[in-house]
Every structure is written in C-alpha cells, then in structure tokens.
Amino acid sequence: MSYQGNRYSVPYQYIGYLVQIQDDRNGILRIYHDNSQIAEHVKINASLYQVAINKKHFEGIRRTNS
Q1: Is there a domain that residue 9 lies in?
Q2: Which of 1, 22, 25, 43 could form a disulfide with 30 if both were Cys (CB 3.0 to 4.6 A apart)?
Q3: How far is the C-alpha of 50 from the C-alpha of 63, rounded, in Å?
Q4: Do the domain assignments include residue 13?
Q5: What is the DSSP string of 22-48?
Q6: What global pTM score does this model have?
C-alpha cells in the first residue's frame, strides 16, 4: 500500500484489494478493509520512497520450488 510517497505492508490476503487509510496525525497509520482494521504502522516521516514492513503480514504464504 502506498501513502504519501512511502509504502506500507498489509497482510498478504489483502494484496490487490482497495483499502482505507486513517492518519490521525499522531504518528500512527491504520489501514482498513471493509471497516475492519487490517494493519497498523508507525508513519514514515523522514523521506520519500521508504518501506515499512511487518513480517507477520507474510506469514502463511507457501513457498514453491520451481
């Protein structure tokens, strides 16, 4: 998910879905899908093109050997 020039992870189940962002200007971003909070990140304020990743958002993805 991209917001103000930075990228934030969401649980993999929501990749490609439309999400809503709540920025209360308190340093925390909350990400919602269908009125349910699916993620929360500390807002990146330093510069553009940074990435915030929560490793738990990727738990459960199965790897395949090609």
Answers
A1: yes
A2: 22
A3: 26
A4: yes
A5: EE-SSSEEEEEETTEEEEEEEPP-S-S
A6: 0.84
Write out the residue range of the structural domain in which residue 7 sits.
Answer: 2-57
Our count of domains for the chain comes to: 1
What does DSSP assign to residue 25? S
The answer as to whether 33 is a domain residue is yes
Task: Using alpha carbons, select from 57, 58, 1 the residue that is nearest to residue 29.
Answer: 1
Return the number of other C-beta atoms located less than 10 Å from residue 20's C-beta: 12
Token duo for residue 65? 């050997």
In this predicted structure, the answer to whether residue 64 has a pLDDT above a threshold of 80 is no
User: In whole angstroms, what is the distance from residue 2 CA to residue 7 CA?
Assistant: 4
Amino acid at site 32: Y
